[in-house]
Write a structure and sequence with these properties.
Strand 1 and strand 2 form a beta hairpin. The model has no long low-confidence stretch (mean pLDDT 87). 40% of the residues are buried. This protein has ten helices and two strands; from the N terminus they run H-H-H-H-H-H-H-E-E-H-H-H. Helix 3 packs parallel to helix 5. 74% of the residues lie in helices and 3% in strands. By secondary structure, the protein is mainly alpha-helical. It has a two-stranded antiparallel sheet. It has one domain. The chain starts with a helix and ends with a helix.
Length: 268
């Protein structure tokens, strides 16, 4: 398991590095659209194990339209995202009205929309980051700090884990692992500070600590989702790591968090 996890992680990091720094922006957008499509497919597949009939293909379509519209700078109104969400809700409501049965109507609509927002919209903030000045460095910094939290939690949890973090959600996650992931994310933030604009040490500490916490919340939520759907991994796409959603989980929450931090605190 460890060797498979290590090989998969190395290959993914190499591919991501080329995608961020070498390949053009259209390829970066294409990769994110592909990841969102697969992640949404896995999400709706898990939900269907609970016998909830979500609008899988409609959700996937809207999920990949979000990063595409950001890349193409398609903007009908200043608050186009609110218009998009409102329109999507209306369409899902209409689709639900065409079904003969009313069983779990609320769950069908809710899970369809939640998947679009959770996977499609949140993960699309990586494209917003990429289009900022020095965007390649910002994206690389975010991924390295976020994933270092995952790596630290796994290593420290395996070596020193004794006390379960939240037993009912994930028995293998421990307080020792959470602390290790938190500290490693701060350390990596300092080591990778040259990837982003110069700032005081206290800001680097805040960013590293904040991303270290948020990334673990994202990981915990996906663990809760899998526990609720009674599945171990979202899929077997990556040996040792699980599915696409298992790879994306921590970044789904840290991407919008880091974007708003950059826009409100750094850019100003």
């Amino acid at each position: 398991m460890f060797i498979s996890r290590l090989i998969s992680s190395i290959l993914i990091f190499i591919f991501v590095g080329f995608t961020i720094f070498i390949f053009p922006n259209w390829f970066f957008c294409f990769v994110l659209m592909t990841m969102i499509a697969i992640g949404l497919f896995e999400f709706y597949s898990m939900i269907e194990k609970k016998e909830v009939r979500a609008y899988r293909y409609f959700g996937i379509l809207l999920g990949i339209l979000i990063p595409l519209s950001i890349y193409l700078e398609f903007q009908l109104t200043k608050g186009w995202e609110l218009l998009f969400v409102t329109s999507a809700c209306l369409i899902v409501f209409i689709m639900q009205l065409t079904r003969r049965e009313t069983y779990q109507a609320t769950l069908s609509v809710s899970t369809t929309m939640f998947g679009i927002l959770y996977v499609g919209w949140f993960f699309s903030f990586l494209i917003k980051l990429k289009f900022l000045a020095g965007g390649a460095g910002l994206v690389a910094f975010l991924i390295l700090v976020t994933k270092s939290s995952d790596i630290g939690a796994y290593i420290f949890g395996s070596l020193f884990g004794r006390h379960a973090l939240i037993q009912r959600i994930s028995p293998k996650k421990t307080w020792e692992g959470a602390l290790g992931g938190f500290l490693l994310s701060i350390l990596v933030a300092y080591l990778c500070r040259n990837l982003i604009m110069p700032m005081p040490d206290k800001n680097i500490f805040i960013i590293g600590a904040f991303l270290g916490v948020i990334s673990q919340i994202g990981d915990l939520y996906e663990s809760l989702l899998k526990r609720d759907c009674q599945t171990k991994d979202s899929s077997g796409l990556f040996p040792g790591l699980g599915g696409m959603l298992d790879v994306m989980d921590s970044l789904i929450f840290t991407a919008p968090t880091f974007y708003f931090y950059v826009m409100f605190f750094i850019k100003k």
